[in-house]
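Archive entry. Fields below.
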Amino acid sequence: DGKSRAHAVVKTNVKFEDIGGQERAKNELKEALDFLIYQDKIEQYGIRPLKGILLFGPPGTGKTLMAKAAADYTDSVFVVASGSEFVEMYVGVGAQRIRDLFDEAKMLAKRNKKNSAIIFIDEIDVIGGKRDGNGLKEYDQTLNQLLTEMDGMKANDHPQILVIAATNRKDLLDPALLRPGRFDRHIIVDLPDKNARKKILEIHTKSKPLATDIDLNQLSMETYGFSGAQLESVANEAAIYALRENKLEITAKHFSNAIDKVLMGEQTDREASK
Ligand code: ATP
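PREDICTED_STRUCTURE:
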């Protein structure tokens, strides 16, 4: 259907270099991706194929970016879905949607002569939450279909499919999802430390006109606890302040206002969710 097609791309054009920090996560992910790149070897040694990787950690830390970079790195087509898309679906529709996702990934890879496809499922906890036996049947069927698809994947499948799932709440996941042969690689994508924050600020100010009074090192200290997504917002808001004042360059003052604004937004979000 047209809905899922909108989420599929042949090339993501996101490189691992576009992700600031997360060195350990990037290395772990690249290592796991060798399973796709050296598929023939994996088959030859009789190694069980890698079917699923779970990326977990706080919101806005770059999990989606990682999945996109993984697709670029392995020259895979990329198909996306979010667990929240399955909310309020009628019984059976969710399971059909999962089938469609896999079919689409295979079709897109074949049509573009790619050896592999990556299916990214964001907010996996929405469909993969622990089953408590009462109600939520439509989620059960969706999850069961996902597990069925993954169990059916073989080492010699062409194209090879890898499912990458992301969650902020790994603790909520049904253990059935995490069993060997399913999402059995878990990679933490955590909040950036000071150096990582500096890298992320560098990435998001690269094409912006910065005044000479700007010290990214200083800014990385002032943004303790910020996620990558928040740092991206800071850079963007600072540029907006400069534009509003008709300044040719973004100054330190614009940045400190932007930091306040992002912090305030955070507070209003928390108030709203109370
Ligand atoms: P969520 O859990 O909320 O879905 P996420 O972990 O998937 O978030 P992304 O969607 O990958 O986070 O990040 C959102 C945006 O924040 C990115 O598009 C990027 O602009 C910025 N960003 C986040 N982390 C990084 C990073 N490590 N380096 C550079 N930019 C980042």
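CURATOR_NOTE: The beta strands are 8-9, 52-56, 77-82, 116-122, 160-167, 183-188.
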